[in-house]
Specification:
The chain is α+β, with helices and mostly antiparallel strands. It folds into 3 domains: about 140 residues, Alpha-Beta Complex (Adenine-n6-DNA-methyltransferase TaqI, Chain A, domain 2), CATH 3.90.220; about 80 residues; about 160 residues, Adenine-n6-DNA-methyltransferase TaqI, Chain A, domain 2. It is built from 11 helices and 23 strands. The strands form 8 sheets. A 4-stranded antiparallel beta sheet has the order 2-8-5-6. The chain has a 4-stranded antiparallel beta sheet with strand order 11-20-16-18. α6 packs antiparallel against α11. The protein starts with a strand and ends with a helix.
């Protein structure tokens, strides 16, 4: 089969945004209004904003029918895709592919998902790169028979469903650990069991932050000592997909922030209200002593023998502690930070070492199940990528 430009197959357009100076456009509205941040899966959820008829007219947008496929064109969400399960309007950052009788929406959805990395690479502009409807019209797709399209979509649906089930399993295991903690110790901030409380400084032999070598990224090397930045520290995990490296000399000059096994790493800055905010994320480092260092946006906490690291990291990554950090952080509206003295004063409820050890054993057993689930998830994601490559090139 030959390839066809998307612009020859689809009517492609975008929406608009009602004037923010007229808040009544958003009050008692009943027209679904989709933004790029809503493109989080195959189908748009019902957790969206609504606008009024006047707001729709003001935005110069129109209502797109169900089964329209949306793709984000601007900023950090470039390439995110979803299918409309209901009639809706969109903002101007969404490209809308109206349904037709030549391509089923599920096939188009997976095709666009497969091109996300290319869309990101081809994005133009400064801090907020973008692609355009004109660019999308030139993208080529193989036009298969409807039966072939349905078979491909069904296969990818099956793999995607298995991936989602693995993710749900991991979420339930995380919830199990949180529930066990609350059962044993209660809320770590309100402390309903009246457990003794000590500051993080009292429980540590070292609390410090890293530094950025003079010259910044010019000091990075292809192989060497891990140089952990805030983007590598997530809630209870270290992500090394985008890790940098420094040489032994630079590492030696920054020996104060050399990382040891089971040190706790905490991120210093971030926006306050985003779902994956980098503000105050914490994780245990499980690598060998002195095999990593940190930059200036990461704090290092090395605990003393009176407390179990797995117990403390559960506190620091709890929802209660996330809310606590939001209250004590400082800075402007767009970006906040936690200072070193605030980290030192973090309150930690302190049950007996025996109970901490008991909880840590439960956490370790759960981690083994999570490890198996993550392995299964990685295999499924690899399979999906392989299938997408086979189907869409």
């Amino acid at each position: 089969m030959s390839k066809v430009r998307l612009g020859d197959l689809f009517s492609i357009s975008s929406g608009g945004t009602p004037n923010k100076k007229n808040p009544e456009y958003y009050i008692n509205g009943d027209i679904p209004w989709i933004k790029t941040g809503d493109l989080k899966g195959k189908y748009i959820s019902n957790e969206i904003e609504y606008i009024t008829e006047d707001g729709l007219i003001n935005s110069s947008a129109k209502i797109f029918p169900r089964n329209t496929v949306l793709v984000a064109m601007y900023g950090a969400t470039i390439g995110a895709c979803s299918i409309l399960p209901f009639d809706a309007s969109t903002n101007q950052a969404c490209a809308a592919f109206l349904p037709n009788d030549r391509v089923i929406p599920e096939y188009l959805y997976y095709f666009l998902c497969s091109k996300k990395e290319k869309f990101i690479q081809d994005g133009v502009g400064g801090a907020q790169p973008n692609i355009s409807a004109g660019y999308l019209k030139k993208v080529e797709i193989e036009e298969l028979s409807l039966n072939q399209q349905k078979q491909i979509a069904a296969t990818l649906d099956q793999v995607t469903d298995l991936i989602n089930k693995r993710k749900q399993q991991l979420e339930k295991l995380d919830e199990l650990v949180k529930s066990r903690f609350i059962e044993m110790f209660g809320d770590p901030i309100s402390n309903p069991m009246n457990l003794p409380v000590k500051t993080l400084k009292q429980l540590s032999v070292l609390i410090t932050n890293g530094n950025t070598p003079k010259g910044g990224s010019e000091n990075y090397v292809d192989k060497g000592i891990l140089f952990i930045r805030s983007q590598n520290v997530w809630r209870n995990r270290i992500d090394l997909d985008d890790v940098a490296y420094i040489d032994d000399t630079t590492h030696h000059n920054m020996s104060k922030s050399s990382v040891h096994y089971k040190d706790i790493l905490i991120t210093k800055t971030g926006r306050i209200n985003t779902e994956n905010s980098s503000l105050g994320r914490a994780a245990l480092y499980l690598g060998e002593d002195n095999s990593a260092n940190i930059n200036g946006h990461v704090y290092l906490v090395r605990l003393n023998a009176s407390v179990i690291p797995e117990y403390v990291i559960t506190i620091l990554t709890s929802e209660a502690y996330r809310n606590y950090i939001r209250k004590v952080c400082v800075g402007g509206i767009d970006k906040r930070q936690i200072n070193l003295d605030q980290v030192e004063e973090f309150p930690i409820i302190l049950p007996s070492i025996e109970l901490q050890t008991q909880f840590a054993a439960f956490d370790e057993a759960t981690d083994k199940l999570k490890f198996e689930a993550k392995q299964g998830l990685e295999k499924l994601e690899t399979l999906k990528k392989s299938l997408m490559q086979e189907y869409f090139g």
